[in-house]
Design a protein that fits this description.
By secondary structure, the chain is of the alpha/beta class. The protein contains eleven helices and 13 strands. The strands form three sheets. Strands 7-6-12-11-10-9-8 form a seven-stranded parallel beta sheet. A four-stranded antiparallel beta sheet has the order 3-5-1-13, with helices on one face. Strands 2-4 form a two-stranded antiparallel sheet.
């Protein structure tokens, strides 16, 4: 597991699903009966969330045996996780642990699809997921994507510098420089570098000429937004000629279907939100009385 999940965070998930008594278990009078619960995928997938599910089940007081790790590739019907204990604890942990595994394994499988497709044509390229994950679920979304072979583009606004046009538009009103907001920003790159000497400076552009302008101004990383593949390939060649040390990111509309095309342009990193959005994996849970 890559991202720490505190005990409080795990308990909050459990409490959200079962804030008081389990009315169904109480009505049936089965709470103290011993049982076994098993988790198996209904189709092949990249597993994620199995380590989180094990922690959740353990906090319910169950004896847990984990047969897979986040990032493993599992086949249909493969046993991933089993838990033993009383029926009250099994039912308390059942649905939240299953749901975590299903959503995370869906994200991990999509991330793996992108990574596999991209590296088939460019073994050095990275697939990077953004901070545009579902609010409140960052730990799960990022853990799942990393389990699928992706890397993290940005954790949050505090960990890195990425200058968008929405930032640069305010530079035009300072009166300090003439020209477009992008030109004003480019001229002040040495100043900004002194302000944050330990950080790489990255900026997003949507035109090849703007990418070249920032490269010549000394930017560390340029993020090319929504460039068609043919245009991006030409831009990458021009940027490599001007600045061999420049890190080049491609972003905007990159998904499992076109990842190989974007990887073939020679970009260093494919920035995407695509793995976050899609169908969860289908994890079958079988429960039996002992």
């Amino acid at each position: 597991m890559h991202f720490i999940k505190s005990g409080t965070w795990l308990d909050d998930l459990l409490l959200d699903d079962c804030p008081g008594m389990d009315l169904t278990v109480e009505m049936l009078g089965i709470g103290s009966m011993p049982g076994l619960m098993e988790f198996r995928p209904k189709s092949s997938c990249v597993v994620a969330g199995v380590e989180e599910a094990a922690l959740l089940l353990e906090r319910c007081g169950l004896a847990v045996t984990r047969h897979a790790r986040n990032g493993d590739r599992a086949e249909e019907g493969q046993l991933l996780l089993e838990a033993r204990g009383d029926a009250a604890a099994l039912h308390r942990g059942w649905k939240i642990s299953q749901t975590v595994m299903e959503y995370m394994s869906g994200i991990a499988s999509r991330a793996a699809r992108m990574v596999d497709a991209a590296r088939a044509v460019n073994p050095r390229v990275r697939v990077a997921v953004t901070r545009k994950n579902f609010p409140g679920a960052k730990r799960l979304c990022l853990e799942a994507a990393v389990s699928g072979g992706a890397v993290v583009h940005r954790l949050n606004l505090s960990d890195s510098v990425l200058v968008f046009d929405q930032h640069r538009i305010f530079l035009a009103g300072t009166g300090r420089e003439s020209g477009t907001p992008l030109e004003s920003f480019a001229r002040r790159i040495p100043e900004f570098r002194l302000a944050l000497p330990e950080k790489k400076l990255c900026a997003e552009v949507d035109r090849p000429e703007d990418a070249l302008l920032l490269a010549e101004a000394g930017i560390d990383i340029v993020q090319c937004e929504k460039f068609p593949c043919s245009v991006l390939a030409d831009t990458v060649r021009a940027l490599r000629a001007a600045r061999p040390d420049l890190l080049i990111l491609a972003a905007g509309g990159i998904n499992g279907d076109n990842a190989s095309d974007y990887a073939a342009t020679g970009a260093d990193e494919l920035v995407t939100t695509w793995p976050y959005f899609g169908k969860p994996a289908d994890i079958k849970v079988r429960m039996s009385a002992l």
